[in-house]
Write a structure and sequence with these properties.
By secondary structure, the chain is an alpha/beta fold. 35% of the residues lie in helices and 12% in strands. It has 2 domains: 178 residues; 72 residues, no CATH class. The chain is built from 9 helices and 6 strands; from the N terminus they run βββαβαααααββααα. Strands 3-2-1-4-6-5 form a 6-stranded mixed beta sheet, sandwiched between helices.
Length: 299
Amino acid sequence: MPRLFSAYVIVDWSAASKPTTGADSIWIGVMKRDLRFRLTFESYNEATRTAAEARLTAILADLKKRSERALVGFDFPLGFPRGFAGALKLKGEPWRAAWDELGKRVVDKPTNVNNRFNVAAQLNRLLTDGPFPFWGAPPKDVQTTLTATKLRPHGPGDLPEFRHADLAAKGAASIWKTYYNGSVGGQAIMGIPLVRRLKDARAEAAKVWPFETGFKGLTEADLDGVDVVFAEVYPSLIKAASLPGEVKDLTQVRTTAEHFAKLDEASKLGEVFGPPKGAAADTVLDAEREEGWILGAGR
């Protein structure tokens, strides 16, 4: 069987409020084949999200020019827990409605100055009229609808704390956490608008998994006419050994790209886009409609 992809691009994102490089900043890893079809790796450490978006745009343009399909993985959730869009009374497909809502609310300046805490506070006000379910902010950004620490546990009448995929990944943080270590909520708020722009610029030539592809194993026929597949990844699912002098973020994008490239080489990557064995029908439906999934979680 032929490979599904020619290149594997992994993005370690950051919600930082100022330009930063090195550890805990944005890293982009690209695994692709050279003129002799040997896999080669290159990385980029951009200081701002604006620079990272320009870099990704250039990478994808180059791959398209060479007629090479890319898998692009982001290390933050691409969807919110089931019921989020409904609770906000958003119209349309739940995943896309949430994306569009963030696109309208998020402000991200070229200097990395951003309003992610204000966005979390605004959404809390609409969801519960209080500081829940989003939580986590530095002292200067604490508001009546956003606390520094978690207000309370999630109860039966609340939106779920975790997506199905977070539980399957065993250790993934909740999207409601917007500050401190592992604050994927802040990364998602700042990252989803980026993926939305990248997707919309390519229309039907780009597909977001599993929302637009279905939560199923993928074949070459499924990707006919597709240049890019965007997916959520969780590098901690893969055992990674750092090279000398390599920061953890770089290790993670490199080894994650290697992992998916090797699966594709062995004609095993397509099946990874499907649900774990025994996944309940409502879990699959929630993933396709609103929550998304982490590529490889639960398998």
